[in-house]
Amino acid sequence: MTVRFVLTAFSAVLMLAACGEIGTEAPADGETLDAPLPGLTPEELAAFLKGDEQFGFAFSPVLGLGPIFNNVSCASCHSGDGRGRPENALTRFSRSATDPALDIGGPQLQDKALPGATPETLLAGVLTSLRLPPPVFGTGLIGAIPAASILANADPNDQDGDGISGRANMVVPAAFVPLDEPGGGSGPQLGRFSRKAQVTSLLQQITEAYHQDMGVTSDFLPVENVNPQVGTPTETADLAVDPELPLADLRAVVHYVRLLAPPAPGQDTPQRQLGEDLFAQIGCARCHIPVMQTGSNIIQALAFKPVPLYSDLLLHDMGDALADNRPDGQATGREWKTTPLWGLRLIRQFLNGQAFLLHDGSAGSVEEAIIRHGGEAQVARDAFVNLSADDRAALLDFVESR
Amino acid sequence: MSGVSRIVATGFVFLGGWATTLQSQEDTTEVDRPMVRGDMYDKPYLAQLAGRTAVGGYVEFHARYARVDGVKEEFTFLAKRFNLFFASQISDFIRFAAELEFEDAAEEINLEFAAVDFLIARALAFRAGVILVPLGKFNLSHDSPLNEFTDRPLVSTRVFGVTVWEPGIGALGIFPVGSAGRITYQIYAVNGFDDGLITESDGTRIPEGRRNFEDNNNSPSLVGRVAWSPRIGIELGASLHTGPYNVFQQDGQEIDQKRNLTIWVVDFEADFRGIRWEGEGGQANIDVPASLLGIYAERQQGFYFQGMWDFGRQWIRTMPKSFFSAGARVDVLDLDADISGDNVKQISLGFNFRPTGETVFKFNYVRGRARDRFNNPSDFADFLFSVATYF
User: Fold this and answer.
1) ipTM of the prediction
2) Contacts B383 to A, Cβ<8 Å
3) What is the CATH classification number for the domain harbouring B355?
4) What domain range is B325 assigned to?
């Protein structure tokens, strides 16, 4: 009996060893969403790793979380540096394009609060928009594409008559963004980030994520976000001295996100080759532009690189079914930024086998996401639906292998 | 008088009455058995308690190599613990014991135990001071030379908060049952946990709210354990720690809802067919403010279960008291029982060499899988070597 017990234990070890698993196995290169771009200098890598830690760092109330917030860390919304799921989607709200409803807690709903503070609620008469956290990898490459290249694809009045316009969201950066920051500058700049391209720089995106999503103040936004719907001073529930985030940590995260590599696409097969041809033929590639190019950049790993993102980074009217009817900057309530399709291959891997697509995560598969396309994409969508079953499968296989 | 103190007071009166009826009873063969195997009054150094005060302790060293998802996560040496014990038999009725812990090369210093016992009868002693609370057997008996594995059980440390000590007052005693059996109890009013279990962490983390040298909310918590042992080598215990953890009143004003933390634990040990089995499991129920639900867990639970086999007693002639042990432990930890993620499962394999019963060299291989709140898995493997000895 006792001998059997020991034998069982040792054979268990041997079995693990036989699988080569005794020390756990690392995922293969290109199979994660949190790898650095190739060719970083040791200094760039060191700062990247510092930012990596900070991206995963979960704030406790004593370290700065709240008083009102949505979640505790970047990683708790952007799973594995990829997308989120409907449970951690954000709600944006406002009264109109020009009224962000600041007096009642707009433009973002903070539905969590520390003890002593009150979470915000949606009041009647506001326009709302539910936003699934998008993946964050590859955003440095996106930021390094010259604005002129992106604007070259814009066709706001559809002069070529293909039914697809494509508009830029020109946005004035927040006052705290330094003029020389990528995406910064005086006057309106090209928006590239978030679902309606309403953000021009990673610095602004991330500083506001700390401030709005987590209630963490920084040198750039040193005053706590409060709930104006209640009379008690929201700040009294806060437990940390402002600014709660050292500038070095904020900079490290911006640097980290900037240098995150997109995962490698899957292997080419004849079926995927066919899918790629169809993707171009039926018009998907008009918006989901397969490759763009970065310009010069102080970071060598970002300079003059191909960006296989499958997006034009422009806004498109996507029809009634996808409209949130809430304008955001110059984007109307029917427009969305073309979602990059890179990394779709790994979508299930970091969401426990599930897939959530489209701006609100309401599509459970690539096919469903395509079928929900309308507006400027109606023609491409209909063409997809009318493909033979084999062709449809090839196209889906191609998209799902990016 | 608050609800808790009323219960404690009633308990004392009741136990006092029971104790006097029992005092006349003949003590049985189990008289020399400690209250809890390995607890404050069951340590090797106490054999030296000839004068008034004895001093002893234990030390523990770790070498750790840990990998997570194929990446080296840790390769380090740790001066894990250096603990000092003191015990004093002041008179026939009064005894005192203390434990001072220097953890991680004295980075953390804790007075884990410092309590006076007033021994009225076997069935009734009063205890006051800093108490290692009876919340599962592992909290009472966790000395590294006793623990068969390098790392403590996950559920015990992360849900029950081992080691939990707090100032408190209460009673303990032993009642014989049958010829060799007995029932032991311990019950105390203690400071309880504080809101640190919410505010000090990004999710409910009970250990962050433990060890309060002062009561944050001026309402004590209650902790107790009852154990039944039909004979030496077999014991079954049940514990409960319950009370409010947040500050809900200040200056006589109601400023928040009262929120309770209740932890229950069952534990067992059994020597069966040459294998020493033990385990404990339980659940914590935490009242979480509504505005934090979805991020802070309301229910945490888990268990551990282990079996060890001793062998090779005569193998090393020059060390007649030496022996080897081999065994395994299974740990299941669920830090949010209301979602599918946020949990850890692991198996630990252990091989120990003991030159004598008081010293142990442990070799462990731990393999497990942790899941985040998205339920994404992450695999880990630890190779651990540690030495621990009483002195």
Assistant:
1) 0.90
2) 23
3) 2.40.160
4) 62-80+130-390
Distance in Å from the first CA to the final CA of chain B:
45
Closest CB to A24 among B67, B203, B289? B67
- The reply to whether residue B70 touches residue A9, judged by beta carbons under 8 angstroms, is no
B340 touches chain A (CB under 8 A): yes
Cβ pair B195:A115 closer than 8 A: yes
Q: Report residue B99 as tokens.
A: 């434990």
Cβ of residue A80 closer than 8 Å to a chain B Cβ: yes
pTM of the model: 0.91
Say how far residue B275 (Cα) sits from the centre of its chain.
Answer: 22
In this structure, chain B runs to a length of: 391
Given CB atoms, is A189 within the 8 Å cutoff of chain B?
A: no
Per-residue DSSP letter, A23:
T
User: What is the crossing angle of helices A270-281 and A389-400, to 10°?
Assistant: 100
Spell out the domain ranges in chain A.
1-30
Domain count within chain B: 1
pLDDT tens per residue, chain B (391 residues)?
455 455 445 554 444 444 444 444 444 455 678 889 889 889 888 887 777 889 999 999 999 999 999 889 999 999 999 999 999 999 999 999 999 999 998 899 999 999 999 999 999 999 999 999 999 999 999 999 999 999 999 999 999 999 999 999 999 999 999 999 999 999 999 999 999 999 999 999 999 999 999 999 999 999 999 999 999 999 999 999 999 999 999 988 999 999 999 999 999 999 998 999 999 999 999 999 999 999 999 999 999 999 999 999 989 999 999 999 999 999 999 999 999 999 999 999 999 999 999 999 999 999 999 999 999 999 999 999 999 999 9
Retrieve residue A278's tokens: 């169809």
